[in-house]
Amino acid sequence: MRFLLINCLIFISSSVLAKTVTVDNVRIWAAPESTRVVFDISGPVKHKQFTLTGPNRTVIDIKNSRIGKINNQPKSQDKYLKGIRSATRDKNDLRIVLDLKKPIKYKIFQLQPNKRYGYRLVIDLFDTEIRQAKKEEPRKKIKKETQRPAKLRDVIIAIDAGHGGEDPGARGPSGIYEKDVVLKLAKNLAKGINKERGMRAILIRESDYYIKLRNRIEKAREHKADLFISIHADAFRDPRVSGSSVYVLSKKGASSEAAKWLAEKENSSDLVGGVSLEDKDDLVASVLLDLSQTASLEASIDAATHVIKGLRKVGKVHKRNVQSAQFAVLKSPDIPSILIETAFISNPSEEKKLADSNYRKKMSNAILYGLKGYFRDFAPEGTLISLRKHIIKRGETLSTIAQRYQISANKLREYNSLKGDLVRTGQTIVIPRNSSGT
Ligand SMILES: [Zn+2]
To answer: How far is CA 287 from the centre of its chain?
Structure first.
């Protein structure tokens, strides 16, 4: 009798655990430096994984599960992934095999349901080494270039289209996603910037994939950006709210704030996009970075003020003053950074505008107008943009010009490759912009 009862209990508990989970769908997001594979699963799963060589593949064994429909395969240009296949194992289990193009490192984790998706099993595939080497190299170059004013460089503006891939951002009433319109806007803005003399844009995100917030800053730094602009579209529960706002990082950034800003909308991106335990260190690190932030904050505020001025030309501005908030993506200690909420995608008429390419062009022109204003105030030394022209009038000498612009005669000689003090009426010389403060 007792024997039977125990048996019965075992049966019940194992049948509860044994609820079969279905793997329903797969999405593949190919980014330049990683590929993310996301399986939709009907509930949490127990999984084991390992990699094999000859040929390279990653195997994921999932307990008590079966395959629904796997209707996606990687594109042929995917850097890491060749194909996905699956088979039943030990009657009730599922084996998924990712066929790879080369040896990789991977991270695997499960995600809780959110507004758009249910439970998910996520595998990130990336290179075994490369990233590290890339990070080290550019820093040395920065020093060299600022020390040599004779070789003038372009100012570099990093444009970050918010969200992407598994993280769609906000969604408009007619179903337009923030991640899509902000990418188009970012591309417009980059085009405009690249047409300007002395300015060059780099896109942090080039198509539909997710990049972690920390890595967005890292990428800007790799490219030695002079300014970082994150582009978003706002959402609010009241569809009547409209207009654009521009943010800089708020000064109050104590570690106790970490929890607070995590809860904030834009920051939750990393959670939506998938954060693993290792990233906890990143969160702490980004709070500590605040301490060295103050220097670039002044520049950030100036950039934001100019951009608002520009935006007022195209439409309604939601907040007339620069806003500040604890956005993780703005936490770059050495690069002035702003975040633009271009419009409210939750407002039906602004959603329509964001979807309109003409309007996006107008808006990116307005932002560009603001940027030009900013770089007149904060032109980094050694950049083409930091120079303005001066035509020598009768009676002027090198030293009176130096005095007028509050710059040393030596610097003037250096910038204009002049050997002595001789200048002639009608001659054009260049003056470094920031040395005068005018
Ligand atoms: Zn956003």
So the answer is: 18
* Ligand 1 centroid distance, CA of 269 (Å): 8
Residues, CB-to-ion distance under 5 Å, ligand 1: 162, 169, 232, 266
Identify the residue whose tokens are 């569809």.
239
User: With 80 as the cut, is the pLDDT of residue 383 above it?
Assistant: yes
pLDDT tens track for 146-169: 344 457 899 999 999 999 998 888
270 lies in which domain range?
131-377
Structural domain contains residue 383: no
Ligand 1 midpoint to CA 295 (Å): 26
Residues 284 and 143 occupy one common structural domain = yes
The model's confidence at residue 247, banded by pLDDT at 50, 70 and 90, is confident
Give the three-state DSSP class for 66: strand
Distance 268 CA to ligand 1 centre (A): 10
Residue 173: per-residue pLDDT: 94
d(CA 346, CA 242): 8
Question: Model pTM?
Answer: 0.72
CATH of the domain at 420: 3.10.350.10
Amino acid letter, 214: R
Q: How far is the CA of 326 from the centre of ligand 1 (A)?
A: 14
Pairing relation of β-strands 323-325 and 65-67?
Answer: unpaired
Q: What residues pair up with 94 in beta bridges, in sequence order?
A: 62, 88
Q: How many Å lie between the centroid of ligand 1 and the Cα of residue 242? A: 15
Count of structural domains within the chain: 3
- Residue 342 Cα to ligand 1 midpoint, Å, equals 10
54 and 22 inside one domain: yes
